[in-house]
Amino acid sequence: MSFLAPFFLAGGLMIGLPILFHLIRRTTRETTLFSSLMFLMPTPPRVTKRSRVDNLLLLLLRCLAVILLAVAFARPLMVWAQRDDDVSGDAPARTIILVDTSASMRRDGLWASAQEEVARLVSAFGPSDAVTIASFSQLPRPLVGFDQWIGTAHSERAERVRAALSVVQPGWQATALDAALLYAVDLLEQPRDGFRKGGEIVVVTDLQEGSQLTDIQGFEWPKETRVRVVPVSASGENASVAWVGDQSVTSAGTDGFSARLRVTNHPADAERYQFSLNWGAEGAESTLPAYVPGGQSRVLKAVKLSAQGQAIRLTGDTVEFDNSLFVAESPRPRLLVLFAGQDEATKPGELLYFLQRALGETPREQIEVRRLDPTQPIRQVDLQAAHLFVLGREAGPEAIAAARRFAERGKIALLPLTIGTTAEEVSALLGTPITALSEARVRDYAMLSEIDFTHPFFAPFADPRFSDFTKIRFWKHRKLDLTGTQAARVIARFDDGDPALVEVPIGKGRAVLLASSWLPADGQLALSSKFVPLMNGILAASSPLPPQRGQYFVGDEVLLSTVDDRTVRSPDGGEIRVAGGSRFVGTETPGIYSVVETGARFAVNLSPEESKLLPLATERLTALGVPMAEAAAVADPSNRTAEQRRATELEAQQKAWRWLIVAALVILLLETALAGRLTHSTPSPAAVLT
């Protein structure tokens, strides 16, 4: 048996008190009748040679209770009480040291302090201990593994760790503390011969408020694992600037673009409150003053930013690492829609007239609807650049053949069936003979029913608030016999059961047939609120584009193109080739990145969470279930020996002091019952008189 706090055993000397009280007991065995005692001087009892202990069992119970309490406070542990499936109590432990290299560690002096803390921790380990050193920001990165540690002589381990840390510097990524802890738990859960199960995770970090903890919520920690935080601290006073609003939209103007920015000042008692935002070339620099009291934020609008991308600097703050913000105008892709037919864009009521108004420019994209002359050959370059092909009235056989070639390459050819559309034209587009195409008999009007809201065309209308199509009435529609087209998919039907919107595969793409056009003579589709999102949904399904954003955070992945290869030029001038369909993962430093082939630019910035520098209370980790090491174990990390660490872990598992306190309470209850019984059994003076 051993004790973690043996000085509490001195409390066992209190056993002399119950012995003394028994020797100077005030009551006697004999009762003598006497007159009034008011004229006699009281004398205290004293111990004499003739004093002797009565009620020996009662005295033993009281002494045992005192001894049990003293031993409990001394925190005993049984080194032989480990489970049979564990290695012996002398087996070495495993420890993982996680070193924070996130952007907040770039503050003056923090990284040097972290290196010193790691050096002190390493010096305390014994020759038989196994240690892993890893850095972490958004992702953990091993520096010295268990095998490398064990394979290095004990006298050379400290130098090896110093060499590993010398090539590492804090980066610009966020603090993913949850990912680092889970990584360490996975390492400790891997069994290793000759070492005890579990171990200790030591985190050397500034533990700032912006640390990510989402992934450890509800995580079930192994019983053999403990977490210890070794904080390195700096001033929490800081001002920062961040982008506000939708990262895919900027406000463009004739002389540049504008952006909304948020300036935040922490903490509430911050002494500085006068700041300014500066951007532009030297000699033509723009300045925007910002008055931000401590604990508050202000939203400001920066205008006339360069279309080539702009760096905005926050001045007036002493913490420099987050005082630069890079902004770039969000790229707006140009989408080309080809329309082949006799319709005129300037004539109200024509197919092309409504199509151009439905597919207009938006803050996110530029759409061009280009009319092709059916009498002229269609250029191959137009087909390659187009994103949607629409066939109008009297499109002609050459346009229909071009639309089929267009669809075969993986896109959509849209054909609204007008009164003049023939079965031969539909057959030429689909490549399958259509035996029947006739005008349906409509009484009053037809409506859409049996709409497949899981299809991408109608997915925007799936919400019950937008799924009502009963207000769209069709005066005319065509009956289409698709019995010979087995792969055809009916997306919507009229209420008389006839197909209303049909999708037919063609090569890698598809043809979409609308059994009634959007001409006013055929129905109310073009005049309804559903027409614009329906046409845009068909365009998006024909040529899905990667999300177009102008702003990203460090560590984000960027999808540049779903088909073509791209070359990205980083802020330092280096170029990285990215295969089509893969993501660019080189957003490691803040700055303006550009795509060489298209000229598009995007900005990469520090995560705003890294600017929250106030210390995070360790109680927050405890509340999330993290098994934190006890206070006695972290009082002086540099002086803790391996044996002390193992004893602390073993005592935390056994908790024998709880059972000793329970035993002491039981003994005190027995003592109380016995004392009461003895008191009631003593004869009173009245009983003697009788």
Please name the defining characteristics of this protein.
single chain; 690 residues; alpha/beta; 8-stranded mixed β-sheet; 5-stranded mixed β-sheet; 16 helices; 32 strands; 24% helix; 24% strand; disordered C terminus
List the helices and strands and how they pair.
Elements: E1 2-3, H1 16-23, H2 56-73, E2 76-77, E3 94-100, H3 110-123, E4 130-136, E5 140-144, H4 146-150, H5 157-166, H6 177-189, E6 199-205, E7 225-231, E8 238-243, E9 251-253, E10 256-266, E11 274-279, E12 286-291, E13 296-305, E14 310-315, E15 324-327, E16 334-340, H7 351-358, E17 366-372, H8 380-385, E18 388-391, H9 397-408, E19 412-416, H10 423-430, E20 437-439, E21 448-449, E22 478-480, E23 489-494, E24 499-506, E25 509-514, H11 531-542, E26 551-553, E27 558-559, E28 566-569, E29 575-578, E30 583-584, E31 591-595, E32 601-605, H12 618-623, H13 631-634, H14 642-654, H15 656-681, H16 685-689
Parallel strand pairs: 3-4, 3-6, 6-7, 16-17, 16-18, 18-19, 19-25, 26-32
Antiparallel strand pairs: 1-2, 4-5, 8-10, 9-10, 10-13, 11-12, 11-14, 14-15, 20-22, 21-23, 23-24, 24-25, 27-30, 28-29, 28-31, 31-32
Helix pairs in contact: 2-15, 3-5, 9-10
Structure description:
- With 690 residues, this protein is of the alpha/beta class.
- The chain has an eight-stranded mixed beta sheet with strand order 17-16-18-19-25-24-23-21, sandwiched between helices.
- Strand 24 (499-506) and strand 25 (509-514) form a beta hairpin.
- Helix 2 packs antiparallel against helix 15 (656-681) and helix 3 (110-123) runs antiparallel to helix 5.
- The longest helix has 26 residues, at 656-681.
- Residues 81-89, 631-640 and 685-690 have low confidence and may be disordered.
